[in-house]
Amino acid sequence: MRILLFISQNYSFEILRPIQEYALKNNDQVMWMLYGNNVDQSYFLANESFTDSIQEVQNFKPDAVFVPGNVVPSFIQGLKVQVFHGFEWKKKGHFKIRGCFDLYCTQGPFFTEKFAKLSEKHQFFDVVETGWTKLDKLFNAEPMPVNNLGLPIVLYAPTFSPSLSSAVELKDKIVALSKQNKFHWIVKFHPKMDKKIIEQYMQLQHEHLVVLETSNLSGLLQTSNVIVSDTSSVITEFMLLNKPAITYNNASPESALINITEPEQLNDALNTALNPTAERMALITAYREQYHPSHDAKATQRVYEAVKSRVINGKLAPKALPFNLIRQIKMRKKFNYWKL
Prior knowledge:
Elements: E1 2-7, H1 12-25, E2 29-34, E3 50-51, H2 54-60, E4 64-67, E5 79-82, E6 103-106, H3 109-122, E7 126-129, H4 134-140, E8 153-156, H5 171-178, E9 184-187, H6 195-203, E10 209-211, H7 217-223, E11 226-229, H8 233-239, E12 245-248, E13 258-260, H9 266-274, H10 278-291, H11 299-313, H12 325-335
Parallel strand pairs: 1-2, 1-4, 2-3, 4-5, 5-6, 6-7, 8-9, 8-11, 9-10, 11-12, 12-13
Helix pairs in contact: 1-4, 1-11, 4-7
């Protein structure tokens, strides 16, 4: 197969590289397509082929296009495959059908059931529960070495969305708790976080409050004892490691989460998380089974097999992708591509 990896954000490398690795082992050809201006080209490895030229992509003639984002041009040939950029269904638009994809590779029953119902309604895409490619690395990742001086490691990873982020409201409390020397705080911001907020935290760093920029998120999740967030996909990733999560004003707090609504509740929540009851661990297990029950690190293999089957035999959905004139024009204008 000829495989195109369609990337628009730096965090997509962790999602798409497992597909590239598996494809190359199967003697497939792989090319990366850059969309937009948010991808740092220095992240590409020496042996990776990438382009921002739509004509080069058309000459490549991909059989399948893997997309972690929400859209992909319909004028690029090949099976369009949605592999998702996270678990955060509570954010607007997660289940919005934009008419761009032939196949949705879902993470677990919660997502599969919802997309399957949408597939019955629209009839132009297939749904296969595969697990999430990014997590193959997570389950096998080595913990990141951290000089925490024996203190519990608390990972603070807020979302960037201003309406959902806790970064401003929790800042003073996090700084105060970090100075009590009871916890070692690591702050990991989303790439889209407001740069002014990042700078504020960086100026407040000290021995037990560190702002960390790393591409090794899996190692960081493995090494942390508890996560503090709000409404972010990283919460689910962390809990899949059978660890407790604290959320601040979560958009739809499930029972497995330790959700707080005031900054002053954070210290007690940390004590609860670091000393979980059997009941809480049972809730976390049930949560894992709904969102990503497979922990065998073979999600990429299942995605690949689902795609290859459809490249060879065609998708099962009876209808072709719908023609969206407005999106067509916007995409063609974006790429300055007007060939038929």
